[in-house]
Every structure is written in C-alpha cells, then in structure tokens.
Write a structure and sequence with these properties.
Layout lengths: L11 H5 L9 H10 L1 E5 L4 E3 L8 E6 L2 E5 L2 E6 L4 E2 L1 H4 L13 E4 L3 E6 L1 H10 L1 H17 L1
Antiparallel strand pairs: 1-8, 2-7, 3-6, 3-8, 4-5, 4-7
Length: 144
C-alpha cells in the first residue's frame, strides 16, 4: 500500500477534522485540500527517516505513527496530529532542518502532505496556525 494514494488530492472534510485547521472556513479548507497530497503507509513502514532532507509537512488523517529518535520511541501520533514542521519551516536563507526523527506507521496510516511553501503561506495567512506550529516546533527541538 506504500504511497498507493500518492498524488491523490485530499478531501476538505478530512482536513476539517484536524484540530490545527478547526478555525478555517470552507473556502480556505478547499484551497488547502487542493494543495495537499494524500499518502498511505502500511504498518511498520517509514514515512520519513532521520536526517533526510525532505521538507513536507504531514498531518495524520487516520491511523497511528510512532516517532523514533535513535532506538527510542519518543511519541505516538494519533489522527489529527502533525509532524515535519521543523523540516518544512524556512529558518532563513531557505534553510530547513533535516529530519530529526524517523516516523513509522504503527498501524495502516493515511496522511495529508503539504509542501513547505504551502505551509508557509498558510502560516502567513492564519496567525493561530503559525503560533500552533511554532509552539510545536519549539517543544520538539527541546526533545531532540
């Protein structure tokens, strides 16, 4: 099932269930969904690997994922939670962090992926999302 849905769009109603996007109106959800890509992973499959240079921001639509730093599972992510904000954020001069953790599907998993550019635009337009993502980034930097 790996990436079986890769490139397929995301339904706005799926994004509407994500707490991060709760305050978005229908039009903003449609625009966000149009720019997102749906992906699927099977249990045990890596979504991202530590030290990779990918810049996508991921939101879990269904299933669970484990965040591994080295040999430790540091967090389990549930539907509605997100990861990849550190790599996606532009820290100046188009610099992004490499992936600081490996994220593995703990069950079959459905994701919505946003490009770094789409995430930056959303953060620019919606201050509450900017604040939530920056807060998560600072917490996750403290753990790594």
């Amino acid at each position: 099932m790996a990436e079986a849905e890769s490139g397929v769009g995301v339904e706005p109603r799926a994004l509407a269930t994500v707490p991060l996007f709760a305050g978005l109106d229908a039009l903003r959800l449609q625009v966000l969904a149009a720019g997102a890509r749906a992906e699927a992973r099977t249990r045990g499959e890596a979504v991202v690997r530590r030290f990779e240079s990918g810049r996508d921001f991921c939101v879990i639509l269904a299933g669970r994922a484990e965040v591994h730093v080295g040999d430790r599972v540091v967090r389990t992510l549930e539907p509605g939670e997100f990861f990849g904000e550190l790599a996606a954020l532009d820290w100046g001069a188009d610099y992004g962090y490499p992936r600081l953790a490996t994220v593995v599907a703990a069950s079959d998993l459905r994701l919505a992926k946003l490009s770094a550019a789409a995430l930056r635009e959303l953060m620019h337009d919606v201050p509450a999302i900017d604040a939530a993502i920056r807060h998560a980034a600072s917490e996750r930097l403290a753990i790594s």
